[in-house]
Amino acid sequence: MESPVNASERESVIPVGGTGAVAASSLTPQQREGLGRVVREALAGLQLMAAWGCRGFDADPALTDRLAALARMTAAVEERSRPPAPSLRAAPALPAAPPSTIAAGPGCLPPWKSESLDLIRRELGDCRRCGLCENRGNLLFAAGSPRPRLLFVADGPEEGDDAAGRLFSGEAGALLSRMIRAMNLPLDHTAVCTVIKCRPPGSPPPGKDELAACRPFLFRQIAAMAPDFICALGTTAARTLLDTDQGIAGLRGRLQHWEGRIGLMPVYHPAYLLRKPSAKKTAWQDLKLVMAAMGRPVR
Description:
The protein is an alpha/beta fold. It has two domains: about 5-80; about 115-295, Uracil-DNA glycosylase-like domain (Uracil-DNA Glycosylase, subunit E, 3-Layer(aba) Sandwich), CATH 3.40.470.10. It has helices spanning about 5-10, 30-50, 60-80, 115-125, 160-165, 170-180, 210-225, 235-240, 250, 270-275, 280-295, and strands at about 15, 20-25, 140-145, 150-155, 190-195, 230-235, 255-260, 260-265. The chain has a six-stranded mixed β-sheet. A two-stranded antiparallel sheet has the order 1-2. It is globular, with a radius of gyration of 22 Å. The termini are far apart.
């Protein structure tokens, strides 16, 4: 018996809410392209959130399977609607490039946006690459949009994040959310990740071995997410991304670039701002520079 998915693909009928449906052939090429993009992005978001173990989210396999079927169907419809490609003589084959043995790091990133976050997370696995795994309850990969306009990178999980199973679960996270709202940015246009993925006991700055183990995964994350801008929260994040020994006080206040591609602003960490509220005004000035660079209205 033919499966419902295959039948749906053959008939090219797209469900629209409830029991309604429209024939894919009745859509304009622009509508088909837009629908395909929405479906593929929704599917990628659902799969990523499920992979991150997000709580309070219904990762129903039937829903993701149905979205996958819709993505395949709309891709097939788009392919059929394209004009045939002109016939070209085959070009001589180029010799295969030798496999790269360079680890991800400043100046030696993997191909831009060539990896999925899901793949990177699977490769990270139940990480045992440094001693932080011995006291870890949860490995905290990232949270937020898989394709953010603005990515916040912090040093590591905060106190309580390990038990909560999510990043910025406490007061620092609440302050970060207020900062994002003050920037007039939808939360779903942002994401957060950390340089190291496990919380060190007592929260000391990450050591060299810990940074060496996590840095390649962080750089691959950023390349895969391809944000328009990054806010490096605190000294460790700023030093790691800018490959410098300078502290946050000397780095903040001017928009810089990561890998020559992404605007990067070092900003005081929300946890520091909770300890020193007088620095909030300075942090807000830095965020306004980011807003201006993003083309957002600055108050």
